[in-house]
Amino acid sequence: MQSSNQLKRGRYIVYIDLLGFREKVKEKGPEEIFGVINDILEDFNRWENLNGAFKTIHFSDSFIFYQDRKGYGDWAFLDAYAIASFLFSAILAKGIAARGTITFGEFYVGLDRSKKHQIYFGSGLIEAYETEKRENWIGITIQPSAWQPYEDHNEGIIEIMQSEKQWFIRDDVLLLNPFRRVMGWYEDFLIEGFPASYKEWDVPEFPNNIQALKFLNEEAESYREKRDFTGKNATKYLTTIEFIKSILGEDIYKWSLELANQH
């Protein structure tokens, strides 16, 4: 349990890293890479404007979406993990692999004396960087520093939300489910169906979910076709697909791919 002072000084940090970015920089022209970064930043800017409590820092292949005002609040945890899932899905929908983590801790952000350079550092950022690098999948983890304060204020809530498939508990880390929109719309589909293309529903979150699932599935299938089941990149996609299937269920997973291929 974090002390009251730590809770007052901390901020929520969503740290997302693009995978394979160095190779893309070597292969693509600078204009194309610039366009990719701008497209991703548009998604972050959208959520900055909609939410109003988080800001974005970008450097090379890393994006930091951080709580602007210091101090723990249940709302900040809920916003952090929900927006993280939307941002992650939006990146995958563009055909770009990513991995991320959510932490809570000290994070200093400010300008230097000349007011020309932004300085940022802190234990929360170090934890985010180190824990993200340890994973070998394509997804977002929620570290104990982020979820434990919420559990302390709402005893038993983490397991309840796991039963709702918001995440899967692995030891002391939560594996975030970024495809809750798919699950919700599947229930509506069974009752009413879709009178129009899925691309017109719940834009952009639901279409992003569908395109993200399609991207992950196609990448995983490409490794299966090559009979590559143990390579580092192959295991990232294959492990991720198995996690998604287990948390969504086969019916929803197949339905999502059918939508992606029919429209």
Give short descriptive properties of this protein:
two-stranded antiparallel ribbon, 11 helices, 18% strand, Alpha-Beta Plaits, 56% helix, globular, 263 residues
Portion of residues in beta strands equals: 15-25%
N/C terminus separation = 49 Å
The CATH homologous superfamily name of the largest domain equals Nucleotide cyclase, GGDEF domain
Largest sheet properties: 7 strands, mixed
- Helices and strands: which structural class? alpha+beta
Order of helices and strands: HEHHEEHEEEHEHHEEHHHH
Sequence of strands across the biggest β-sheet: 2-3-1-4-7-9-8
**CATH hierarchy: architecture of the largest domain:** 2-Layer Sandwich
Structure description:
The protein has 263 residues and is of the alpha+beta class. It has two domains: 4-176, Alpha-Beta Plaits, CATH 3.30.70.1230; 180-262, no CATH class. It contains eleven helices and nine strands. A seven-stranded mixed sheet has the order 2-3-1-4-7-9-8, sandwiched between helices. The chain has a two-stranded antiparallel sheet with strand order 5-6. The longest helix has 22 residues, at 30-51. The mean pLDDT is 95.
